[in-house]
Amino acid sequence: MNQSKLLLLILVSIILVSCGTSHNYTSNNLNKSFYQGKSIYFKLNPKSQNQINFSGMVGTVLGGIIQPNVKETFKKSIEELASETNLKLKFIENSEKLIDKESIVFDTDISEISWHFGFSIATLKTNVIYKNTNNGNEVITNGIRKSGGGDEMNNLKKSLKDATFKFLKELEK
Predict the structure, then answer these.
(1) Which residue intervals of the chain are DSSP H helices?
(2) How many percent of the chain have pLDDT more than 90?
(3) How distant, in Å, are the alpha carbons of 24, 76, 94, 115, 120 from that of 167?
(4) Average pLDDT value for residue range 47-51
(5) φ and ψ at 51, to 5 degrees?
(6) Are 113 and 52 in contact (CB under 8 A)?
(7) Distance of alpha carbon 15 from alpha carbon 32, whole angstroms
(8) How far apart are CA 155 and CA 121, in angstroms?
(9) Which pLDDT value is given to residue 61?
(10) Is 67 helix (H, G, I), strand (E, B) or coil?
(11) How far apart are CA 45 and CA 135, in angstroms?
(12) For residue range 91-134, what is the model confidence (pLDDT) as tens digits?
């Protein structure tokens, strides 16, 4: 009987892991000529949401919930997206210290972070407002990470990376 329980647990684990959405943008469809020679900087607005709001069938399996550092997670999402897309994307603390005056700086406000747990799928959603500090234009996007659960920081990073990728698609229009 123990072997059948173990087999069932392994099967359920595989199914839950395979339910996650992919967030690797190595093979992306961004307009490379639009971004050629441009450096894009992201500064996190201090008024941004700094905690995940949980809803649905939230449980405390395996020790409960750990709130990730949103600023560090956002920084990692920018670094990872830059690496995958081969674009000059950078996280900065202070735009006043930039030497390159031709650079594009976006004040980034994470207005919502919500993680809803359904019966078999958990959906982490971020709403993000990107405001160009030079001309005041705003682009609002959302990022989504669907999974069977998992690590809070990793899911948040993937959701923020998804939002920033969607922002880049809007920027090139």
Answers:
(1) 2-18, 32-35, 70-85, 152-171
(2) 53
(3) 16, 17, 21, 21, 29
(4) 94
(5) -145, 155
(6) yes
(7) 36
(8) 13
(9) 52
(10) coil
(11) 17
(12) 998 877 776 767 899 999 999 999 888 888 889 999 999 999 98
Residue 105 CB coordination number (10 Å): 19
Residue 114: C-alpha distances to residues 32, 53, 82, 129, 133 (Å): 32, 5, 25, 15, 27
158: nearest Cα among 131, 110, 120, 125: 125
Q: Parallel, antiparallel, or unpaired: how do β-strands 104-117 and 53-56 relate?
A: parallel
Mind listing the pLDDT tens digit for each residue in 52-64? Answer: 888 887 665 545 6
Q: One-letter amino acid identity for 19?
A: C
Distance CA 157, CA 31 (A): 23
CB 91 within 8 A of CB 153: no
Number of H helices, E strands in the chain: 4, 6
User: Position of tokens 């392994």?
Assistant: 10
The pTM (predicted TM-score) of the whole model is 0.83
pLDDT tens digits for range 20-33? 445 667 767 888 89
